[in-house]
Design a protein that fits this description.
2 copies of one chain form a homodimer. By secondary structure, chain A is mainly α. Chain A contains 20 helices and 2 strands. A two-stranded antiparallel ribbon of chain A has the order 1-2. Mean pLDDT of chain A is 78; it is low at 1-20, 204-223, 271-286 and 436-487. Chains A, B: This is Proton channel OTOP2 isoform X2.
């Protein structure tokens, strides 16, 4: 509940054909947040209970809950879409910053992968149809339906600032958000259980009580339902490799739903769109790489390809005998240290470039950016926590060998890289568009009188259109016009920043692929497992790593925005 | 990182004798947040590592880290105090909402209890001085010093909006905040370990690996250092009973430091103080209870006394044989169900009274209130989580007896009570002062022109004092003047609200005392322990309950504010 309300008067003017005027926005938000929190905690309880074999909560209970939630959310979405189609004046404003094209594109991409996953899952459960609960086959089918409806809804409505049925819309959006987060939690838990099962063959440790879902299914209905046929095993392997996309789909949808929720009942002036923010403009595809020095993308691509090769070699070698595991780990850590070191230096140089950059900071209200910053800072906590636990284990642990030193360097660089990358991205997102140098922004000067002091309040007042005088003194013209008169020295900086963001983007993709598709040096490396014990270390990694993986994906989408903006 | 920046122009006018103008407030905040997060995660790693006996992190490591942090924070505080004393113009504004008298009074009270605890701790560790590490005696001494310095600092400076050395001050405040949170974590973990040790005698379950600190100390230096003398055991008992006060002290100090951090570099107009918010005015002590119907405080006091008696009977009976434990639990749950049911009804009726209340909502920026709301909503999550886990255990578990039914009713009412109490408190905190009815607030009407649209922006502009015309149309005069002309019907509502807040306040105190001083029906009651297994259930309760206890304390301080405001 952040104090984000615009001051009273800007909320007052009634929207064109709006419902009853909203006296207190936070009250409406409060109810929907309480609804979402309670639904989410109930789901969380069932999902975490279902993950433990000792606990008498079965995965069919979890599937039943998720299916019900998805059906309800889909019904609400259909209601929303029908209502806004019939009555277009229900959405008087659209937020130009919300739902940029790369976010919606990513959503569609991940949505398609989720649909494939659902096909695989249906195939897997159909292989032993006769001894399964019907809900297990119904669940992926309903999920496919839900994904199709939700993707269409977000593609069409992500920018809406709706002004009818405010409370109902808020509750609906929050319920859909809770559904997506519940699906995310279920997928993460299911993947961790699967991972723990495949690890437990190498670590013959009996202290962890998790079992793979197929074993659990067997324990419920008897031992004759096992996945023996080749087709069934392909389905099972396939759906586990597609989980990362499902996880990202849920998170992308959640962020877009949150921004829509923030925008419910929001008033925007029509002039805000063209107000020189530049967040909304999409680059022409022809000049996509023309404005860089090529060094960033080329170096990034090299690292990407090398990383992919090392990841494949690591995955093949790490399940072998002791010596080859050691070798694979040394290789994996060396690559990561090199990559993280380079990323740290590059982020740092980006921040240094900003020290010489005289563009004005953009102080305007922007829920999308606020959320981006909060997610970057929050999701980094997961990787920080893992790194600090590693550091303590290596420093306090007894055997100090090459692997310990590499692990320590890796953990320290991981922290440094997250810190500097966050600083660089957050500063980039707050820069004004190119050319908006402070000397030509009259509204940064102290209070000339009422006219200027009111400039900001005015942008959110739709019923008070800016007078010609005010519009003429607005800080920046259209970005194209400014780009032409840009000084060559500024252009050099801009190219550098574009190179930096592309390099970081490619590095983040490879650092996303490695953990998302199953690299777990945390368990292959015995330092932490010996120090903390298997169950404690597994709990730490399984809780924190999903946030670390989400951080990478979110950094990629933010860096894409930085690339477009700089 | 919430989007709380005031629009550009209000930040621009230079403060009287301020440092260089701050271009981008978020940049300065970012650095200090990163510092605090990293320090806190390091402390968290060591503290959680130290709690597990298997892990080779000793409590001396934790004590050493905490002592270092407290020394550094105390040095920074001394530097800050000296600097502001020497140069009074460094603090040009004071935030009237920050550090109200009851918060500072509570801080001093809890600070004194913490000092007594430190005496007990020093006495306890001195009892076996010869075989202890010196840091264990140094730690409480340094803590006492730190508490004295910090309490003085917060008493004097809680309202400061400092305008020199912005980045250094932000980092110092965040470091002190991190120190307080680390002390809180260490105290909570130490108490949980103690609790687990005293529980493990009744549940002879070997799956949990925690040991009491004295046992750990013995394992390090040999078995001749045990607490045998009567004095030593009194010291040990005493310091564990004083832990809840130390925990609350750290949390109170943290909230005040956070508000100070938010206020660094903030610009306030001198007119904001008297602007009819009423948050700042303290009630005259004579009329403290005169404005109530006495029903609330009397009913609350009865519940408080009955609750205290039941708590003492429960604590005596629960450690006895099976039948008496059962009896004690039935009594405990019955009282809690009655108390929670009444509180739910009373909160609900408070919300209904607000539906007929026509006072305007207060939309002004107020970091203290934003933090209060966030903490109420966030801390309630702990109790929600415990309740949902209980509900799942009772519903899915097999034996359905009286205790199961009581447990279910208790969990459901706990959720309802938290929801309705939060709604009531948050709505109360956002009401304007009494008498500020919407019909006499011209600025709530839609946009009459630039003059009115600018009213809100103007309040934060120190260099543009309100013109006489504007001041004349400001929504409310001083509260005293308004109270006289208050309609009798409004006065009746106001008395009701005061009764409600006093009743809820007293109930929250008794519901704070019970868990804070060691009532753990979660473990005496076997439903959840059997369902989830001891280690999982202990993890859930030990992580979530500290937030639940904090919620009660924080609700008490918020309800006191509601009482004063309504």
């Amino acid at each position: 509940m952040s104090e984000e309300l615009a001051p009273g008067p800007t909320e007052s003017p009634p929207a064109p054909r709006a419902g009853p005027r909203e006296v207190w926005k936070k009250g409406g938000r409060l109810l929907s947040v309480l609804l979402a929190v309670n639904v989410l905690l109930l789901a969380c309880t069932l999902i975490s209970g279902g993950a433990f074999n000792k606990v008498a909560v079965y995965d069919t209970d979890v599937f039943a809950l998720l299916t019900t939630m998805m059906l309800l959310a889909a019904l609400w979405i259909l209601f929303y879409v029908l209502r806004t189609v019939r009555c277009p004046e229900a959405v008087p404003y659209r937020d130009a910053h919300a739902g940029p094209i790369w976010l919606r594109g990513g959503l569609v991409l991940f949505g398609i992968c989720t649909l494939i996953m659902d096909v695989f899952k249906t195939g897997y459960y159909s292989s032993f149809f006769e001894c399964q609960s019907a809900i297990k086959i119904l669940h992926p089918l309903i999920q496919a339906l839900f994904v199709i409806i939700q993707t269409y809804f977000l593609w069409v409505s992500a920018k809406d600032c709706i002004h009818v049925h405010l409370d109902l819309t808020r509750c609906g959006l929050m319920f859909t958000l809770a559904t997506n987060l519940a699906i995310w939690m279920a997928a993460v838990v299911d993947e961790s259980v699967h991972q723990a099962h495949s690890d437990s063959s190498s670590h013959s440790n009996t202290s962890h009580s998790r079992l793979a879902p197929d074993q659990r299914a067997g324990s419920q209905v008897g031992e004759d339902c096992s996945c023996n046929t080749a087709v069934c095993q392909i389905f099972q392997q396939g759906y586990f490799y597609l989980y990362p996309f499902n996880i990202e789909y849920s998170l992308f949808a959640s962020t877009m739903l949150y921004v829509m929720w923030k925008n419910v009942g929001r008033l925007l002036s029509s002039s805000t769109h063209g107000h020189g923010h530049g967040h909304g403009h999409s680059p022409s595809r022809v000049s996509l790489f023309r404005e860089t020095f090529f060094a960033g993308p080329i170096l990034g691509l090299i690292l990407f390809v090398v990383g992919l090769a090392i990841f494949i070699i690591y995955e093949v070698q790490v399940s072998g005998e002791e010596g080859r595991t050691q070798q694979a780990l040394v290789m994996y850590y060396s690559f990561n240290i090199a990559c993280l070191g380079l990323m740290t230096l590059v982020s740092l140089s980006g921040s240094i470039i900003y020290r010489f950059d005289r563009r004005a900071m953009d102080h305007h209200k922007n829920p999308t950016r606020t959320l981006d910053v909060a997610l970057l800072m929050g999701a980094a906590l997961g990787q920080y926590a893992i790194s600090y636990y590693s550091i303590v284990a290596v420093v306090a642990g007894t055997p100090r060998d090459l692997l310990g030193a590499l692990n320590l360097a890796h953990a320290l660089l991981m922290i440094a890289q997250h810190v500097f990358q966050n600083v660089f991205i957050i500063e980039s997102l707050h820069r004004g568009p190119p050319g908006a140098e402070p000397h030509d922004t009259p509204h940064k000067e102290p209070c000339h009188g009422l006219t200027f002091a009111n400039l900001d309040a005015l942008h959110t007042l739709p019923s008070c259109p800016p007078t010609p005088t005010l519009a003429g003194s607005s800080p920046a013209g259209p970005p194209e016009a400014v780009a032409i008169i840009l000084a060559p020295e500024g252009h050099w900086r801009r190219r550098c920043l574009k190179d930096i963001s592309l390099f970081l983007l490619l590095c983040n993709i490879i650092l996303w692929i490695m953990p998302a598709f199953g690299a777990r040096p945390h368990f292959s490396n015995t330092v932490e497992v010996d120090f903390y014990g298997y169950s404690l270390w597994a709990a730490i990694v399984n809780i924190c790593l999903p946030f670390g993986i989400f951080y990478r994906m979110h950094a990629v989408s933010s860096l894409l925005e930085v690339y477009v903006l700089s």
